[in-house]
Each structure stands twice: as C-alpha cells, then as structure tokens.
Design a protein that fits this description.
With about 300 residues, the protein is α/β, with parallel strands linked by helices. The chain folds into two domains: about 100 residues, Glycine betaine-binding periplasmic protein, domain 2 (D-Maltodextrin-Binding Protein, domain 2, 3-Layer(aba) Sandwich); about 160 residues, Dipeptide-binding Protein, domain 3 (Roll), CATH 3.10.105.10. About 45% of the residues lie in helices and about 20% in strands. It is built from twelve helices and nine strands. Strand 6, helix 10 and strand 7 form a beta-alpha-beta unit. Helix 8 crosses helix 10. The longest helix has 22 residues. The chain is globular.
C-alpha cells in the first residue's frame, strides 16, 4: 500500500506535465486553433460590435484585446511581411492614408450602416457663451481632412503642431467656422474627448481655433463613459467626439435630454473588420474558410 501512495503522486505529476506540454499549446496547434481578430481597448463600441459579429456569423475566431496603437503596429508588421491579418477598423483613421486597406462586407449589417461624428454641447452653452457655441455649431470637415491631421501626428508631430499645420493650410475652411460677431470678453473652454487618433485630431483642431479666437482651452482625455457622463453633467463645455448612432448610441441615450446636439461635424464614418487589399476574401462570411491564414 505504501508503494501505491508513492506512485500515485508521481502519476499525477506526469498527467499534469502532459496537460501543460500538450494540452495547452500555442498557435501551432493545427485545425482546432481559432483565427485571430486584432482589436483595440476592451469596452470600446467596436469591440462589442465585433463580439456580436463573431456570434452572428458563427466565426471560429478569438477577438484579441489590444490598443489602437498596438493594433496599428500589428497591422504594419503584417503588411511589411505580406501576411494576412484582420483588425477592427474605423473611418476616418490614418491607417487608410498609410496603407491599401478594405472593409470586409457585412451582409448581416452587424456593424450597422454609415455613422457620423457629432458635436455635443452642454445645456446652457448657447446663452453662456454664444460665440463659442456658434463656432462649434459651424465646425464641419471631411474624413480626408481628419486623416491628414492623424497622419501628421503618426509621422511625429504633436497634436497641436498637426492641428496648426492643418489650420494654416485650410484657412478658408476655418474662416467659415468663425462667428459673425466677436465676443467682447473671452473665458475658459473645456473640451472632453476620447483618446482615439481620430478624436485627438478633431479636438485639437477645435481647441487651436478657439485659442486663436482668444479663449483659454483645456482639452481633457478620458474614456468614453466618463466623457458622456461629463457632458451630461455639464463638466465639459463640449465634445466633438460623438460617434452616432451606433458606437456611442447607448451613452447618448442616457444623456440626450440634458445636452445640446449640434449635429454632425463629420459624415461618412464607418466601423467594421478591415484587411489589407492583398487579402483575397471580401466578406465576413468567408473568414472561417480562411481561418488558417489569420492565426
């Protein structure tokens, strides 16, 4: 009996070692290994939409939490080596100016249709500071404008430097945003934004225009939930980072009765799954058949 008690622990150890070495293998495990979708920060609207897409399309893929910067780095590495990769993507984004990319068709419309980015002001801004409110109401630009600012930031400029460069190169457009009458007194303006490449670009352009008008402007980067709570509570004067109706729709529904929606400042925004154009599939429905190339 004493021999039995000595052998059993050894057998248990061998079983555990076998499980560790062979049962928990990495990406070289063969046909049962899931494909990989490179995502961004957990909790982002596009991540929730991608989880829904995995379920709706029955994808044998794992969504990998990451960050916007890490996703872009993974994309660059794959493209440099002409490897297949699928990432969560959105337009506008500098990556579309940097590389040849395409969205995979979404026939079930899990990601929804085209989105817009809206300017949201706190209730009372129009009466408290009509000049700032008018400028924010007139602010409107195109995806290519935003992508130009994003690409300059990606290439090494600070957000303020890239914003100033775009303003100088597009002064006629900026003049269209300026109020008809200048306020006699200037004050402080607080802008909230989510720290996405797109919203860093738009917020700093607006910030710098307001500073050129004579205002002291503070731009505060927070996560999406805090941004929406802040604008709903009046902690921010405005945000120019509202992706609607899909990405930030749930947040907006909670505060819409307590804010001033000034409408779209950019149209043609989109979210979905993105691949390099050399990838030979065109639809989310084709991902499972190509799973071995996306591991």
């Amino acid at each position: 009996m004493r021999k039995v008690f000595k052998v059993l622990p050894l057998a248990a150890v061998l079983v555990l070692l076998t499980a560790v070495l062979f049962g928990c293998g990495g990406g070289d495990g063969g046909g049962d290994v899931q494909g990989k979708i490179v995502g961004i920060e957990p909790g982002a609207g596009i991540m929730s939409a991608t989880e829904a897409a995995i379920e709706e399309y029955g994808l044998d893929y794992q969504l990998q939490d990451s960050s916007s910067a890490a996703m872009a780095a993974s994309l660059k590495k794959a493209i440099d080596n002409e490897e297949w990769i699928v990432v969560t993507g959105w337009t506008p984004h500098w990556k579309f100016a940097q590389w040849d990319l395409k969205y995979l068709d979404d026939p079930k419309e899990v990601y929804g249709g085209e989105e817009h980015i809206a300017t949201i002001a706190r209730t009372g801004l129009a009466s408290d500071n009509p000049e700032v409110h008018e400028m924010l109401d007139k602010f409107y630009w195109a995806p290519a404008d935003m992508e130009a600012v994003m690409l300059d930031i990606q290439d090494g400029m600070t957000p303020d430097e890239a914003a100033d460069k775009w303003i100088q190169d597009n002064q006629d457009r900026v003049n269209e945003w300026l109020p008809a009458q200048e306020a006699a007194e200037k004050g402080k303006v607080t802008l909230g934004y989510v720290e996405w490449d797109s919203e860093i670009a738009s917020t700093h352009v607006v910030k710098n225009v307001l500073e050129d008008m004579g205002y002291e402007v503070e731009a505060i980067a927070v996560d999406a939930g805090i941004m929406w709570t802040g604008i709903g509570n009046g902690d921010f004067d405005a945000i120019v980072s509202a992706w609607l109706p899909g990405t930030h729709g749930d947040y907006y529904d909670k505060v819409k009765d307590n804010v001033d929606n000034l409408g779209a400042n950019l149209e043609g925004a989109k979210i979905g799954l993105v691949v390099p154009t050399y990838v030979t599939i065109d639809s989310i429905e084709e991902l499972n058949d190509a799973k071995d190339k996306f591991q």
